[in-house]
User: Fold this.
Amino acid sequence: MANVSTIEGIRVSADHWIGGARVPSSDMFLDLSPIDLETLAMVARGGKKEADAAVAAARDAFPGWAAMEPEQRSAVLHRVGELVEARVPELAVVETTDNGSLLRSMQRSVMPRVARNFHFFADQLLAMHEDDLEMGEHRSRVEWDPAGVTVVITPWNAPLMLGTWRLAPALAAGNTVVFKPPEWAPLTASMLCDIAREAGMPDGVLNVVQGIGEEAGAALVAHANVDRIAFTGSVETGKLVSAAAAPNLTPVSLELGGKAPFLIFADTDIDAAIVQAVNQYDNAGQVCLAGTRLLVERSIHDEFLDRFLERASGLRQGDPRLPDTDLGPQITKEHFDRVDGFVQRAKEEGAKAVLGGGPSEDLGGLYYRPTLFVDVPPDAEILEREVFGPVLTLQPFDSEEEGVALANATDYGLDAIVYTGDKERAERVSPKLVAGTVWVNCFFVRDLRAPFGGARNSGIGREGGRWSFDFYADVKTVCEAPWQGS
Assistant:
């Protein structure tokens, strides 16, 4: 009997997708909506058995997919993108209900980005070219050979968009994929399988194993017949993934946590800086790129604080499906308690909460009030560890050098934000910041042609544009001696 749930009239399978067929499991896990804690589905709980079957299906499908002409693979991926575009409303509703993100964001940007991931890498596949290299009379050329079976493990805060950021280039490169979606928001990954089938993707090229990270995920990353692993998630889990992959020498691409600085100089457009600073509460703070450490030049600190509080106090928290909601819930009770633990420990260490500082008494459930700390001790945990909730800190600085030092005072290095009205300052400061991406007078602008990844504990590797193909392919050099008679 098919294991299908209906969400707002949309039917979604909660089984695995392996070798082009729905596969149930005898064990199940409960998927709750963070909006109201109502049951959405009983999801198939995979483990080693399902991991083995999915890897075998991907391995069987690999020769045919890898041998397909690039134009044919590109056409299939473009068709996936077109079908995603057609189903944006359904995908948005299901993911919002599953993970509590704002429906308007899902409709306007997140799900359209899913489609763009497929379209971009379908085009990038056909654009891969390197001019031949000449040394004396010898000529070398670069080729990108498909690597094999890729495992993709994605987090719950934007599971389909972040998943397809890895899936699309892996598939474009000629790899087959086993996708392990997050157990806290697994349903849109299942919908993608139906889309891929309709687009004409051959059986076994895309597989989805549902399950718990410690079970299904662990079995996949330790699998000896996997050729690439792409993981997005916490630093702690990233270390476990690396350790599991090491015995097989499986290359890994890791996008891990962040504790981004938001560096605001006195010469900036303060109105724009305040709007962007309050935007760091987006997705209820469940964004790894969020600039959670507001660093403000002292001469504008007090004005900035007053105006920030005025704007942030107008944020509307509630049901993310409503068009006027600005903040939704935390994803689970476990995560809600984790966020609250950070907040309460910050208070104990002497930090002052001038906004929020606890759960929403009016809404109850998993809704946590947007929080801002000032007067934070320099060695406080809240400045050093990723909270992944609606919690920001504000620190003043007196000089450019001090601002940069504070910005770099973390083990993370995913991104940084700089707001200044001085172009020369921006060009002087940006190279000094330890970060994979530095945004100047903007935030969250992602050109898919550019490399993306983290420094320090924020990850290993770069993806985007040709950098993705360098990871998902075995890059080969063919060197030819001169041919006689030519």
The mean pLDDT is 97. The chain is about 40% helix and 20% strand. The first helix runs from residue 48 to 67. The CA atoms of residues 164 and 188 lie 11 Å apart.
